[in-house]
Amino acid sequence: MRAVVATLLLAILALAGCQREERDTRPQSARGSGEQPTPVTTLEPGGQRPPGSDNKAASFEANAFHMSEGKRLFGWFNCSGCHANGGGGMGPALMDEKWIYGSSMESIHSTIRDGRPNGMPRFGDKIPDDQIWELAAFVRSLGGNAPSSAAPQRNDDMMAHPSENRMPDAATLGKSP
Amino acid sequence: MKRLLPMAFAAAGTVFLQGCAGWQSALDPKGPAASELAWLIWFFAGLCAVVWVLVMIALAAPLMMRARAQAQPLAVDAGADDRKLRVVMIAVGLTTAILVGLTLLSFFADRTLAAIGSDAVLTVRVTGHQWWWEVRYEDATPSRILTTANEIHIPSGEPVRLLLTSNDVIHSFWIPSLAGKLDLIPGHMNVLDIKADKPGVYRGQCAEFCGAQHANMGTFIIAEPRAKFDAWWNDQLQPAAAPTADEAKAGEELFLRRPCVMCHRIGGTPAGGTVAPDLTHIASRQTLAAGTLTMSRGNLAAWIADPQGIKPGSNMPVVEFSGDELNAVVAYLEGLK
Amino acid sequence: MSSADLASERAPATEREASAEGDLAPEHDGPRDTGMDDASLHGWLAGTWGTAPGIVGALSSVDHKVIARRYLITAFVFLCLGGLNAVAMRIQLSGPQRGLIGPDLYNQLFTMHGVTMMFLFAVPIVQATGIYLVPLMVGSRNIAFPRLNAFSYWVYLSGGVFAWISFLLNMAPDVGWFAYVPLSGPEFAPGKRADVWAQMITYTEVSSLAVAVATIVTVLKQRAPGMSLDKIPLYVWALLVTSFVVVFAMPAVMIASTFLILDRLVGTHIFNPAEGGDALLFQHLFWFFGHPEVYIIFLPATGMVSAIIPVFARRPVFGHLGLVLSLIAVGFLSFGLWVHHMFATGLPKLGASFFTASSMMIAIPNGVQIFCWLATFWDGRPVIRTPLLFVFGFFVIFVIGGLTGVMLASVPLDLQVHDTYFVVAHFHYVLIGGSVFPLLGAAYFWFPKISGRMLSERLGRWHFWLAFIGFNAAFFPMHLVGLWGMPRRVYTYPAELGWGNINLFISAGAILFFLSFVLFAFNLVHGALKGAPAGDNPWDAGTLEWATSSPPPSYNFARIPVVTHVEPLWAEREALPVATGLRVDVRELLISTVAEAHPDIREKSAAPSIWPLLAAVAVGGTFLFSIFTPWAIVWGAAPVAITLTGWFWPKGAPEDEE
């Protein structure tokens, strides 16, 4: 009995550890994957299309390395110029619970790659696809959507807001205390 | 077995006797600081070797003596022990004297080294990044301040002051044939004075563990006569050469339309990124990717096509180009001399 | 056998005076060992001091020998795991651009190699030899604070297992065993890897602190009557000094790693230069521990050398007082050297020079030790057996390491060789030569005592030569390749630098050295199963552990010996004088005065208990949980409080009611 419990615990830990700690520096498999439309939904008339075989979103979503890379790129590519460290300015805030175009990984990926009306540029040519996924994972963590064990920690820099691993959980945003 | 031992010695000999000369060897000094240090290393090593041999003789000598009576371990000759006490006291006294001497020697060597760069004319600011070197040549005239990457040109025969700091983690700047190392620490500014006696290319490497590609963070100091150095500086200040061939023009357009422009700078074009190495005169450098690859058309193509295969974990992403597009970009970059 | 009745040693109190210190009213007192015959004495003591059979009995044992054996086996397993890390690294480095192991895995490998060897092998194993030998050498029945000792083992085991499980989960720390910030800090070390490092350090160092405290108290208070300070064996002195160094050094690394995890988990700015912190603070805190740490690993080994040499030189060690004073001097001086690890960070030159002087100075007491040991041999040819071979290996190798240490002490010289393979060579020479070789000699020397069987002398000599040749082939060339420019912690190197051949040679030597440990493991198993029976004192040694049977019974000594000389068994060839008067039906120790070791009081020794294991589980769980959230401290406090309450619940010994 003790052995079974221990093995189960280990298995859970193992699965949890593997996803969060993977450091794949060359996740791209297919050429031109950045040009394929990333379905924001699988619903279509006449039934559901099964989701694509390479589920890129999942491998980037709760991964500590990719989120920390996304944080680096957020600074390098000057997203703060409009989004101001997540608080918003010219662009909408990324730290709140309002998502104009959806908060899923695929939606955010599409926002960055293709741009959106009212001022969001399209970065599809300018940022490689995998880095867009990294940015999407980071943006989700700004809103408290990433598990705190994987979310990025404080910068070795001036801090404009609590680090992402200490942000309030998304489920609590927008609700009175 | 009889042949094994001589063979083993021969093998060991070829390994060790390949000599002290080397592109990155502390025992092959090419500047006053490294020469002083090499002399210090040889002196210390020689003295220590002598001490070790003496201790080994003292250890081996009892093996030649007659065995002690085993049954009466407490029967000790007090007179012999008194003589031994005198010998031990002398040995301790000699040890102390040698150590004091070595301490003073070390202190005076440090003073000699400190005096080397005190009259430096040129100041170069080196900022460490994961995993490349940002090099900025300071000048009183702001328009002459030059920023390049990874390779540092200096005038030979003159001391140069290096200001070392880091943008991210702790690195360490080390050119063994010219000087000792000094760390690049975020939030600190360290000063290292170096001088190369003669023109030449001197290789170095980051010497403080800085993450995934610490092993591939090489740097070069290229020492040239003053006149050539000044000419090089003027060349580097010029904006990038405009491409003339069709393929190179297509390459420039690709550079500006695709991800390259998000991180890199090419002077004279709209590309103004500062987070990655400056590429204005990339083709004039001897190596790529901080010493990882020698500069050549093939290596440029390989690096752009698959940086994560060559330097996994580095911050250069895999950018997708078709074969023709890659050729065009490489043709453009090759022309940036 | 002459016996000195305790009661009659004291000032004129009769047995019936309840007011005399330590004497109980007859109705509360129990049978004493005075006047008992050997058979019934053995029967009483075995029942009182034995470990209960069965799994619960084994888990509750507080017998220092049982716990020390567990420590030794566990540490040896970690040695092998750390060695496998090293073999993997050396295979990757055997040629330029080998491509077998990528940078991410390599960084985890060398970090785990350092962490395993330093925290999970070297310190625990030297402390473990102390847990086993110190109570025997001072003539006591058990170590002080036996349940704390048991707790320390469970803490060590779970900390080490946790670190290695994290390796399996791709979560092993990859920032070096020293984990400098900002590389290990929140921005540059994503995920939980560095948190594993930080918490594992704090946690296993609790284990070291516990053992150090127990050792100090055992040595100061539980010595056999007559073992005044000048009659304490040198090995015990070494462990005493080491334990004090542990007590003062470990808190520094616990602070450094706690600050790191606070920065990472809670968002403090202790090491953040942009908000007023400093990256160098971590280095100071870490190395304030890090330098004494290597003396923690080295000093017990000098004790082992001091224990082995007299036996094979067939005379007491020359310069006993000098050796004791050297041990104490090294212990003190070791706290004044730490900045020599930071010479390349751009410190003010005058301050750095001070540390050059102190780093050179520590070679003087070390030199005194070496000269005294050498002088011990000068009376005549020693008896050559495997333990002595390893001691000779220690001399050859450690002196090289100490001399390259003198080279490294010089600031300008260090600036060329810092963070190169020259330093790797240096510290392997001092740690393997100065600690592992004496440990191997100690294994051959004390294996007969621990197991009752002798190890094969022939296999021992093969082991020694394989280890000696393999070690030197692997590590001597590293001095050269470091001077030729090869830095540390690199997963590969370019072919054009010409380091390929020498690295291949080094890797071959490393494999040989690893194989010597395989041979050693074989010798241990072979000896345990088929070795010749050892008897009480196969080497005709002089210290107290050889006065009892091999292996010792659970109660160590039938009667507490009385010590008249620093080598008691050589002084009292006919029969060892003993003291009697301890109770045989409860666990009772004889406490003596600190300086002169006059018998003072009889004190209870803790009975077996399952609470140390439960407390270690509670503490370990709290630490593990705290890697993921700081709330773990709050939630974990409850189980820790419960287990500690169970542990310390007063048992109401009769003497408390008087």
- Assign the CATH class of the largest domain in chain B: Mainly Beta
Low-confidence stretches of chain B: none
| CATH H-tier superfamily of the largest domain in chain B | Cupredoxins -  blue copper proteins
What profile does the largest beta sheet of chain A have?
A: 2 strands, antiparallel
**N to C succession of SSEs of chain A:** HEEHHHHH
Question: What is the averaged pLDDT score of chain A?
Answer: 83
Share of residues in strands of chain B: 15-25%
CATH fold-level label of the domain at 78-152 in chain A: Cytochrome Bc1 Complex, Chain D, domain 2
State the separation between the terminal residues of chain B, measured CA to CA.
60 Å
What is the CATH class of the domain at 78-152 in chain A? Mainly Alpha
Largest interchain contact:
B-C, 100 and 95 residues
CATH topology of the largest domain in chain B: Immunoglobulin-like
Multimeric status of the protein: heterotrimer
Work out the helix count of chain B. Answer: 9
Which structural class is indicated by helix and strand composition of chain B?
A: alpha+beta
Structure description:
The complex is a heterotrimer of chains A (177), B (337) and C (658). By secondary structure, chain A is mainly α. Chain A has a domain of 75 residues: Cytochrome Bc1 Complex, Chain D, domain 2. Helix content of chain A is 38%, strand content 2%. Chain A has a two-stranded antiparallel ribbon with strand order 1-2. In chain A, helix 3 packs across helix 6 and helix 5 crosses helix 6. The longest helix of chain A has 20 residues. Chain B is α+β, with helices and mostly antiparallel strands. A five-stranded mixed sheet of chain B has the order 3-2-1-5-8. In chain B, strands 4-10-9 form a three-stranded mixed sheet. In chain B, strands 6-7 form a two-stranded antiparallel sheet. The longest helix of chain B has 37 residues. The model of chain B has no long low-confidence stretch (mean pLDDT 92). Chain C has 658 residues and is an all-alpha fold. Chain C is 62% helix and 3% strand. Chain C has a three-stranded mixed sheet. In chain C, strands 4-5 form a two-stranded antiparallel sheet. In chain C, strand 4 and strand 5 form a beta hairpin. Chain C starts with a strand and ends in a 10-residue tail after the last helix. The N terminus of chain C is likely disordered. Chains in contact: A-B, A-C, B-C. At the B-C interface, helix 1, helix 2 and helix 3 of B face helix 5, helix 9, helix 11, helix 12 and helix 13 of C.
